[in-house]
Structure formats: structure tokens, C-alpha cells
Design goal:
Layout: H1 10-20, E1 39-43, E2 48-53, E3 56-61, E4 67-77, E5 80-87, E6 92-102, E7 105-110, E8 115-120
Antiparallel strand pairs: 1-2, 1-8, 2-3, 3-4, 4-5, 5-6, 6-7, 7-8
């Protein structure tokens, strides 16, 4: 069942896919600060949220809640993560390498060289 949807630019799609990789995790670190990429990450354009949790990621559209991508992630260093999965929109594989510039910012590059930034979403109580 296809319904008309607004097309998402490739950069936003990549960010969405990556954001999907950040699922909410339990508290970690001092003061409940999440460790690594565990948690939710918002694309800089606000179009998608990626959730990382226990090695799995999912990216969803912020306006509809529709899943955009899903897959796995692996921390390759204390501040580096590799994300692999599938774009559910295009039914194609996606792959990204990201570095944590700060505890709240991920700088990512797709295997095709496209760069984007994700910002950690604040936990809501």
C-alpha cells in the first residue's frame, strides 16, 4: 500500500537512517548520561530520529513515526561507531561511520562520502 509522501533529500535520508540506529538505552555513566551512542539522535533538519539500543538501530520520521531504516551498529572505539542496515524506503543497504565529536554530537559519513550530523535528543521525563 503506497501512499503519497513528501520526498526526502538524500542527506536527510542518510541522517534518518543513522538516527534510527540510536535507540533509547538505560541510564549509564555519571548523572545518568548515556554512554556511547545509546539513546535517541535527531537529524539536524529535524526530519528523523534514530534510536540505538543494544546493538540495534531504527530510524523513524518525526512527522509520521514511519520507520525509515533499521539495522545494527557496533562501537569500534570509545568515540566511533559503524552502522549497517537497510533503507526501508529504497530497500537498499546503508552503511555509515560516525565519530562522537562531543557526547551530544555525532559526525557521520556514508560509504558514498555523504556527511551529516546527528544531535543527541534530550530525554523527556
Amino acid at each position: 500500500m503506497n501512499t503519497p509522501r513528501k520526498l526526502i533529500p538524500a542527506g536527510s535520508l542518510a541522517a534518518l537512517v543513522l538516527l534510527a540506529g540510536c535507540m533509547s538505552g538505560g541510564p549509564g555513566g555519571l548523572g545518568g548520561t548515556p554512554r556511547g551512542v545509546e539513546g535517541e539522535w535527531l537529524s539536524t533538519d529535524g526530519v528523523a530520529v534514530s534510536r540505538f539500543n543494544g546493538g540495534m538501530f531504527e530510524t523513524v520520521a518525526t512527522d509520521t513515526g514511519n520507520r525509515l531504516a533499521s539495522g545494527t551498529y557496533q562501537m569500534t572505539a570509545q568515540d566511533a561507531v559503524t552502522i549497517n542496515g537497510t533503507s526501508l524506503i529504497r530497500q537498499t543497504p546503508v552503511s555509515f561511520n560516525c565519530l562522537m565529536a562531543t557526547p551530544t554530537q555525532l559526525n557521520c559519513t556514508s560509504t558514498s562520502g555523504q556527511q551529516f550530523v546527528l544531535n543527541r535528543r534530550q530525554a523527556t521525563s
